Amino acid sequence: MKVKKDIRSLNLKELCSFFESNNYPAFRGNQVYNWLWNKSCFSFDEMTNISLELREVLKKDFVINHIKIDKIQKSIDGTIKNAVTLFDNLLVESVLIPVKNRTTACISSQVGCSLDCEFCATSKLKRIRNLNPDEIFDQASTINLQSKFYYNRPISNIVFMGMGEPLLNYINLIEGINKITSKDGLGMSPKRITVSTSGISKLIIKMADENVKFNLAVSLHSAVEKTRNKIMPFTIKFPLTDLKEAIKYWYNKTQKIVTYEYIVWKGINDDMNHINALVDFCKSSPSKVNIIEYNKTSNDFFISADDSIINKYIEELESNRIPVTIRKSRGKDIDAACGQLANKLKQ
Ligand code: SF4
Prior knowledge:
- By secondary structure, the chain is an alpha/beta fold.
- The chain folds into two domains: 5-63, Orthogonal Bundle (DNA polymerase, domain 1), CATH 1.10.150.530; 68-346, Aldolase class I (TIM Barrel), CATH 3.20.20.70.
- It is built from ten helices and 14 strands.
């Protein structure tokens, strides 16, 4: 049986050439493209300005692989977690986070994750595949609709902090973001998009060289090599010195300040040695620090540090003029907070 291609993997030029090579006018490509991206249509039959005959031609060669929201779960704080089924029945999760008059969409980039951050529930799911650009786009456009429905406003920000390491799905990530920011997608400013990486240095350099316009966040969690290697074992291959150089390069090329995400755990990084190392690391190029409240997973090794040491972190960072914010966890009661995404909704 012929395997039909997802029509949304074709760009506008390819769509127009498809029509031309089948002896139809090229402008049909524009019409179909408009249905697929501006109107987010789910079936060829919705394309009412396309003749029945032409719709049958499309059905013969193509499918429209939209994601499906299988289940949603709402937190007492208004956060919404989506169980997203992909065309091949695999599952990822995406999250809508409302804060005052803003809504942030937290998007997944891979099914599972190949990295092994010990504190993260997703790391227990093996990486099965990368998400396609349209699957990345669909998560954003679905959360945009949810935001309008539940909160009467479109999404204001997107963070790639869901399942997977976004930079290990580089090409699809960039294509997905291009679609989100393009006029025929969501028309969103790249300044409102943040890609969060666990620190793949050479890909940070690549992004800087390509002059991307979105923001960069790095999950640092420790500026002491030995500790970082222990809690994020894959970082043995990605030393902090390389990361530091890559971030300097990023800043020099893009003039964009990097955000370090940082969790403080009892007995792991809750001492002056780690605080001083973080301050030193931050001084190497303009940066800010987000201290993230820890969300418990099944790993009992990780326990949130005492407030007194978190206050000490803040004090030392501020006295060195390094901006720092504390990020409260959202959606904890539904396992939708940072590091908790583990496809439990399906169970
Ligand atoms: S924190 Fe991010 S990179 Fe690390 S295992 Fe979890 S999903 Fe993967």
